[in-house]
Design goal:
15 helices, MetI-like fold
């Protein structure tokens, strides 16, 4: 009796669904995403735990802050029992962490509103502001760095370097006040405070976010331009492929943009991803100055009120955004250079 054999797939036949799933699960990109997500779990846990500990170490009491300075000790104690603030900190953190696992971030101590609802209201404003600032910093940093590296030591290079030093020396809150004074008070071309929703007016929305976005973007723009210029000069002066390209008669601009810039984008993307946390952190001050109803302003109000559930939820969302952006940065490496995917699979 002959043993049955499996028929070999015909050439050109469509792969089976099981084969497609296996190919996807074993792909280097999926493995990279899986590893990064596993690493993100303890990172997010550590961030929330550290935030909870710091909030409990701050002077003051949430019940006292909510009731005001004239509240009696009896009223403060009754509110603490009502809000479960009389329980030990580790019990309250465990209850909050258990709620996070089930998708429940708790309720605000001040407004009694669900933290998820608060974040949904505030997140779009902060997202627009961060995205606007990120676009300004990246879109303008690249051409400025290329112009500076085109003729190193020339007039344009020196002017850009001076502007970079000035931008790096100014704090975002000082820059916010200067921009507000110049463009809102003196020139009157942009609003000083307030926010216009894109559903009301696209132009009004862009105008209301321009000054805050510039306050966030200009220091990072100067940093990115200086960093990318230094890397471009190193590529142009020490790499063999540049010498080869120049020996073939390629013009300087083509070597600079088509060869050196592409290789310099690896380090540039890493720095942009790592500095996203700095960009998000600056929104706390900038949103307060320009009266933007975003998560940064909400976080500052929650800290003042000792509203721990809102603080924890906001910090958790910020941390998740930073983790996801760093993951996207890693995946962008594979887009810029497909060889990196094989390195990831071998790791």
């Amino acid at each position: 009796m002959s043993t049955p054999t499996l028929a070999a797939p015909r050439p050109g036949a469509a792969p089976s669904p099981r084969g497609v799933v296996a190919a996807v699960l074993t792909s280097p990109s999926v493995r990279l995403v899986g590893r990064r997500l596993l690493v993100a779990i303890p990172v997010l846990f550590g961030v929330t735990l550290l935030t909870f500990v710091v909030m409990n170490l701050l002077p003051g009491d949430a019940a006292q802050a909510l009731l005001g300075a004239n509240a009696t000790p009896q009223q403060v104690h009754e509110l603490e029992i009502k809000l479960h603030l009389d329980q030990p900190p580790w019990v309250r953190y465990g209850q909050w962490l258990g709620g996070v696992v089930t998708g429940n971030l708790g309720a605000s101590l001040a407004s009694k509103q669900e933290v998820t609802a608060v974040l949904v209201q505030r997140l779009p404003v902060t997202f627009e502001l961060v995205l606007y600032g990120l676009l300004i910093s990246v879109v303008f940093a690249v051409p400025l760095a290329v112009l500076a590296a085109w003729r190193p030591g020339g007039v344009v290079d020196r002017l850009i370097m001076v502007l970079n030093m000035v931008g790096l020396s100014v704090a975002p809150y000082v820059l916010s006040l200067v921009l507000m004074y110049v463009f809102a008070v003196k020139l009157g071309v942009l609003p000083a405070i307030g926010y216009v929703s894109p559903t009301e007016s696209i132009a009004g929305n862009v105008r209301s976010l321009t000054l805050p976005a510039l306050s966030l973007a200009l220091p990072l723009l100067c940093f990115y331009a200086r960093l990318l210029r230094a890397d471009l000069l190193e590529q142009m002066q020490s790499q063999d492929y540049v010498v080869t390209a120049r020996a073939k008669g390629l013009p300087l601009w083509r070597v600079l943009i088509g060869h050196a810039l592409r290789n310099s984008l690896f380090g540039f993307l890493t720095v942009v991803g790592l500095n996203l946390g700095t960009l998000i952190g600056a929104t706390v001050v900038v949103e307060q100055i320009f009266s933007l109803p975003g998560m940064g302003q909400q976080l500052l109000e929650a800290i003042n009120n000792r509203d721990i559930p809102v603080v924890e939820g906001t910090v958790l969302v910020f941390a998740c955004i930073v983790v996801l952006v760093n993951l996207l940065t890693d995946l962008m490496y594979a887009v810029l250079d497909p060889r990196i995917r094989y390195g990831n699979s071998a790791a």
